[in-house]
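Service request form, structural biology core

Requester: graduate student, group of Dr. S.
Request type: structure prediction, single chain
Budget code: on file
Notes: please return the result as structure tokens.

Sequence provided:
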Amino acid sequence: MSGVPALLTVDRTLVPGVALRGGTAGAYRAVANAPGEPHVVRTELEARRPDRSSRDIRPLLVFAHATDLQLADVQSPTRFEFCNEHLDDPRFHRLVPMHRPQEALAARAVQAMVRALNSLDYGPRSGADISLVITTGDAIDNAQFNELQMFLALFEGGLVRPGSGGPRYEGVQSLQWGDDSFWRPDGDGMDDSDWYQRRYGFPHLPGLMDRALSAFHSQGLRLPWLACFGNHELLVQGLGRVTEPVRQHLLGASKPRGSLAELDLDALEDAFIQAPERFLSGQQHVVTADPDRRAVGRREFVDAHFSPLSRPLGHGFTTTNRRSGTAYYVHDVGPVRLICLDTTSAAGAADGCVDEDQARWLRERLEEVHSYRLTAEGTALTTGHTDRLVILFSHHGIDTMTNNRTLPADPDGSRLIGGPELRDLLHRYANVVAWINGHAHRNCVTPRHDPLGRSGGFWEITSSALMDWPCQARLLELLDNGDGTLSLVCTMVDHDGVVSPEPDLPWTGRWLAGLHRELAGNEPWRGFGSAARGGLADRNVDLRLPAPFPLR
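Core staff response, request fulfilled:
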């Protein structure tokens, strides 16, 4: 039976279900309904437990978090899916996977999440209205203009065009591509027509690719939403610098089939980061050229968010960002300051960092909402400013801010600052209560204690990718418990795609979104058996921490 899940996972969860088909390496499983999960109370930063019957509990901010949509032009001339043939080679570990069987359906999954968030009015714990949606980067996959247009149409409302080039699908999952290492839903009617069907029992669904890439209309989010800049917004497949040869190839009519004969296999990651065009050599497949595939950079990405439909104008980005080519900003909501960081490095590589200019800007924005701060030596300094609670958000988190690469043209540029140094800086500003991020494609909630006891610490909340299993978003409720403590109550949200997309059902938008989720669950590397969903203490949680100043 198919059905719509209860969207909040306190009511119902989605888990691996029965085996639908077998393969030589594993079974292809359905997605199934399971009982809801209550909130796990975590007291690592605050041991006191407020009386939940108290009427003194006051909501301060309720918002949703969605991350890593990775909307891809699946026919792009500069996607390097052929690297997936080397998944078992450790030398390719940092490059793969470069293709997922569900990615052509990603726009439908995002549409289903837009509908889900639009249907939610209030937080399940507080009953307070949801104020906004925060995104934390990798909305697109390959730094292309047509991908950016797809994202904005989905979130702002409008006509969504997942396809590109010609009228028919021309990518690696077509029979014409002639490579059976990719899932080919059109197949040849046999159970062993490709690697995914042979080994994992993937389905035979003729006509799926053309249906997946057909245009459709999105209602857009009814809530205001804030944008963020991730590595896939700037880099080729989130890793390689967009060089001039890559820019030219994007606009052409040939797509690489793969030839690594001239590359040093022991230095593949560096080669791809510095010069992705080296992976464009060898045999090519003809595709239809499309001028909308042109590369976009940081400035154009920011500018595109200043449309008449944007709410708030610029989706957080400011006129200063447009003028300076930066992508970090503040957005104040009631008693809370939201600070968006830009952690993406123009020098390439997937992980992040910030430069000294952004770190200096961050210190200034933090000081504006602290009545006192600590120096690096631990001395308290009065600022004269009014206190506000602070929530940071960015694409990368503390453990994935390890990038120390510099641009070849500026090897002696600004000093780069990683996650541990930023963490230590935040401990000098006691009003920071949370850091929200993505990038890791898994749910993970980590208490960040101040080892010197200068502050009450903060919670780092990393959410899973909408692209990959479990294909969820997260609701967050910041509550004043009325007793000198705060709670950050987090609740995972499922989209409204069909739970069991049986092939004989109508292939509606909800069916396609449900199939995306089912395929994501069965993807061999990031599916049901991976750590992406996190543990119980990473999903529905009530995160306690001391209030850093009197809130009433």
